Known about the structure:
The protein is an alpha/beta fold. The protein is about 40% helix and about 20% strand. Strand 8 (about 210-215), helix 9 (about 250-260) and strand 9 (about 260-270) form a beta-alpha-beta unit. Helix 1 (about 20-35) packs parallel to helix 4, helix 2 (about 40-50) packs antiparallel against helix 4 (about 70-80) and helix 6 crosses helix 7 (about 150-160). Bound molecules: S-adenosylmethionine. S-adenosylmethionine binds near residues 114, 145 and 174.
Amino acid sequence: MTAPPDDAGSGGGSATGLTTGELLREGGDRLRDSGSETARLDAELLLGHAVGVGRTAIVAHPEAPVGVDAARAYRAALARRAAGEPVAYIRGLKEFNGLAFFVDRRVLIPRPETERLVELGLAEVMRRLGSRTVVGDPMRIADVGTGSGAIAVALAAGLRHRNALDAVTILATDRSPDALDVAKDNAVSHAVADRIAFAVADLVPDDAGVFDVILANLPYVRSDAMAGLPRATSFEPAPALDGGADGLAVIGRLVDRLPTLLGTDGVALLEIGADQGEAIVMLVASRLPVWSCSVEPDLAGLPRVARVAPT
Ligand SMILES: C[S@@+](CC[C@H](N)C(=O)[O-])C[C@H]1O[C@@H](n2cnc3c(N)ncnc32)[C@H](O)[C@@H]1O
């Protein structure tokens, strides 16, 4: 048998006599039986986590021996996954916008569709910076309901990549102090903590002042739909998801505050549910009659981000 390269690893401890291929089959079968629709992928990620290598090395070396400690950690992880816990919480890691975010049960696991909000936010900030004729005070950006810090940190990393991070300041808020602790850790990990201020607040602190760009992925699930969400979602904090009777209660309160939070040239980009496109346009029309509201689709073509601005 070909010796595995160093990076395939055995995960330490004495040999079990089992290989990665055998443990993957065992895990895939167990997770399939538990109802996972991504059983094989989950098993690969969890074995990689237990062994301490990437998924690619696991898949590439089915013949690699696995040590006792790693096999035990893997089986413990399988038990958690079989009980419904999301892989991201078990690994303590979620990829978002090409960056690795630490996550645990204090925060919502960032969703791929939120990458669209970051993309639109980056474009908005860069366009505004580009049209500035004089270099003035830093542009003020808020990420309301930051959770793991996914939006604020990904935006800051994107701006750094474009040599524009020094031209902005970002305020990241959350009602949950626990979530903000996670967000701060992620900002430090990605070396953007010096450009992001954090505040525990209901939406935005009263004395926060005026912003140029507000980004928010606030809860938007209807309360009566919470019980029907996938099992993995029950491990996430309910206040991160529950948007009240019509799903737009929290977002609506932010809309109400936009006239005092946004400058005359400001814009708010608000993530919404795929079935809330018409509802958000009606909500803005009724609460802010002279403002505009258009809805941007996500990569799947579904309504995803409301763009709200004074006219
Ligand atoms: C859907 S999660 C989004 C988290 C993160 N922005 C993301 O996109 O992954 C909503 C977040 O908003 C926070 N939140 C809910 N209500 C809030 C409020 N009234 N004020 C501030 N944050 C709030 C929750 O604690 C949670 O972290």
